[in-house]
Amino acid sequence: MVKRLVLASPRGYCAGVERAVETVERALELHGAPVYVRKQIVHNAHVVRDLERRGAVFVDNVGEVPRGSNVVFSAHGVSPAVRHSARFRGLRAIDATCPLVSKVHAEARHFARLGYTIFLIGHAGHEEVDGTTGEAPQSTLLVETAEQAETVVPPQTDKLVYLTQTTLSVDDTDEIVRVLRRRFPAVEAPKKDDICYATTNRQRAVKRIVAAVDLLLVIGSRNSSNSNRLVDVARAGGVVAYLIDDESEIDEAWLDVVESVGLTSGASAPESLVRRVVGWFRERGVSQVESLDGAFEDVFFKLPREVRADGVTRT
């Protein structure tokens, strides 16, 4: 029987997600519905459904957006080819790409111009990886696992660098990098780690909390890379962990022989979902709810110029 609920800290929204969601909200206020968004603005089903109710229309590609309309690029970023397609269709693009993703894009362009082969560590098919690869497609080799790092063959070995998706497992990425450095001692690293501060902080928080709980629940959607990595980190620490979209997905059978439950949320999950899950446990008699202290986050990103009060034109 659950007697204690422990909340990880930090958890939930990061600065890039806050910026992206607010960008869509501001675009709706300024231009009215519909505002088109290429792909999910962030990988959370609740956020997407809420914005849809308010007039956002999510599309898979810019070819679905009526000519001359506003289109928001998601937090995960887009390739130059997508930007070109949007301009060709006369779309007014509002770029909600997380600045930390834009940093990786700039790195890819920089190293490609200098003739480097880029090992891009990330997950195939993820929008962020697609966008980064699109910046330097002829120079980029995707590496998903340590096993692939053992076998990847670059076209040249004089100039090599590795970049990473921002939402990866820190430990798994370190393992891949160790393999690349062993095989290619001269491989260079980005000046500053590409895995973002929020991903790192949330994984560290999970490592702290697993020592204090019997089971961990991670609030996040199935397609959220950073949320899935929190589950992986907990399981690697020897604790049973489940990914849930909200309280409706909790299986009470999970809790039969559990006294302490940990709770965290991915960087694209709003705090309102945490409150709902806490309420679910309180309704079942759990009165001991505590929070573990963690890293303080004060990162802030300005909204895109197109939706800022100092740079917009109403339509």
What do you see in this structure?
This protein has about 325 residues and is of the alpha/beta class. It folds into three domains: about 5-15 and about 195-290, Cobalt-precorrin-4 Transmethylase, domain 1; about 15-100 and about 300-305, Rossmann fold (3-Layer(aba) Sandwich); about 100-185, 4-hydroxy-3-methylbut-2-enyl diphosphate reductase, catalytic domain (Cobalt-precorrin-4 Transmethylase, domain 1, 3-Layer(aba) Sandwich), CATH 3.40.1010. It is built from ten helices and twelve strands. It has helices at about 15-30, 45-55, 80-90, 100-115, 125-135, 145-150, 170-185, 195-210, 225-235, 270-285; strands spanning about 5, 35-40, 55-60, 70-75, 90-95, 115-120, 140-145, 160-165, 215-220, 240-245, 260-265, 290. The longest helix has 17 residues, at about 15-30. The relative contact order is 0.18. The model has no long low-confidence stretch (mean pLDDT about 95).
How many domains make up the 3D coordinates? 3
Backbone CA Rg: 21 Å
Shape: flat
How would you state the average pLDDT, rounded?
Answer: 96
User: What order do the helices and strands follow?
Assistant: EHEHEEHEHEHEHEHHEHEEHE
**Unreliable residue stretches:** none
Q: Count every beta strand, where a strand is a DSSP E run of 2 or more residues.
A: 12
Number of H/I helices: 10
Fourth-level CATH superfamily of the largest domain: 4-hydroxy-3-methylbut-2-enyl diphosphate reductase, catalytic domain
Describe the strand arrangement of the main beta sheet, using strand numbers: 10-9-11-1-12
CATH class of the largest domain: Alpha Beta
Distance from first to last alpha carbon: 57 Å
CATH architecture of the largest domain: 3-Layer(aba) Sandwich
Beta-strand percent range: 15-25%
Query: What's the story with the biggest beta sheet?
Result: 5 strands, parallel
- Tell me roughly what share of residues is in helical segments: 25-40%
Fold-level CATH name of the largest domain: Cobalt-precorrin-4 Transmethylase, domain 1
Class from helix and strand fractions: alpha/beta
